[in-house]
């Protein structure tokens, strides 16, 4: 193929219209397509829904030869195949699930395919390399390219095997695509796939019509019920486990009278399909789901996304909340978080491979910072994705109701030293009694009334103890023990020595339901 003669702008516009039915490019699509048509390797970082598929499907149609698309999931490939074929694009998948492989290979050799979807493990097999050398290859598109990086949230060793294949065809441009990349991951993708730094194109991540709110969870059912009452449109509630999904779906249906259905990987295929179809068609349904729900679902009018527990990472949070308001109309994203979510996540850290723990811990810390911040949520979110947003957005909980920041370093030192002096094995309830000077049986039996921390809590400090403990657990200064107690962790020693300040964000005392604002 000849990079000297890319198709004219007219031809590009024509194909965009005729094949895809679009009148214009969106966002950075034109920049990405233009680079690819000029034969230049590119990493496009575009949020979910920004239209990544078009950036390789359009060149696939315009360029002579076949575009080979590497994609991590067979289900995803088949979705893509269906929509490409519906647009009249000559496409095929080459996976273990296809029984027409011989036919597909013949079509590839004969130059009759615009698009060929393959899994990364196939791309690394020698026979596949031979197959490609018998065909004309126009472009390598690497979807979900963050899978190549150990910094990414979804590392797949198979992606590392792609490089030799790409290097076998040095004249073929590479287009790496991902929705999720902090700057570490980005740099790593460029290096791993051999793409120049100037090939990086990043789309704006802001979703201005989504209103973000993040609140401590006190009574999830009551909080979600209120949310459903305030938001009559269709919505998704993400819950951490299958059991929790089913339980919430049932209780919420009962409590609100709304149509609430569950979705998780443990349900029978036909139940899942039925619930999904019902949701996509509905104007008021609520789907309670695990993160298994959402990929490849095209429903533009989702009015709210709620998290009943913390997501896995900021990337996950962005992706899941990003399913709200694709139509551009006002939508809300509300997260209800608990200290125990972070406690569990930090426990799990010790179970993963040692060399991945540092990046996972960084990921968790970033999430804790988003949850704990008194700053604009959108600003924190966008900065995470490498943007330089205004300090306030006017459309998140912290902008709409500025929180008070309280310096609680002294109180933090009292709590941490109580943890230390009682042997790092008691829960918050017991610690609170010791600090408040309550001499019940357990306190007396252990001799904790004799400790220097006994009864040192002031009246003013009492209501701050729980939010503080929550904040310390989120940031890892307090970590759970196996038996439900609390131990020192992270920067606890620095706090005790007075080397680190601790502040917590306390919401304004306001509540439509007449309860104390704090904690809702
Ligand atoms: P991503 O893979 O980035 O999540 P998709 O490629 O699935 O996004 O595209 C998301 C939606 O946007 C699809 O419904 C697609 O048809 C639509 N879309 C993509 N590009 C355009 C465009 N230029 N104009 C209008 N709609 C578009
Ligand atoms: Zn804001």
From TrEMBL:
The keyword DNA repair applies. Transmembrane segments: none annotated. It is an enzyme of class 5 (isomerase). Keywords: ATP-binding, DNA damage, DNA recombination, DNA repair, DNA-binding, Helicase, Hydrolase, Isomerase, Metal-binding, Nucleotide-binding, Zinc. GO terms for molecular function: 3'-5' DNA helicase activity; ATP binding; DNA binding; four-way junction helicase activity; hydrolase activity; metal ion binding. One of its GO terms (cellular component) is cytoplasm. It catalyses: Couples ATP hydrolysis with the unwinding of duplex DNA by translocating in the 3'-5' direction. Its EC number is 5.6.2.4. Residues 220-368 form the Helicase C-terminal domain. GO terms for biological process: DNA recombination; DNA repair; DNA replication; SOS response. The keyword Membrane does not apply. Residues 33-199 form the Helicase ATP-binding domain. Belongs to the helicase family. RecQ subfamily. This is DNA helicase RecQ. It comes from Novosphingobium colocasiae.
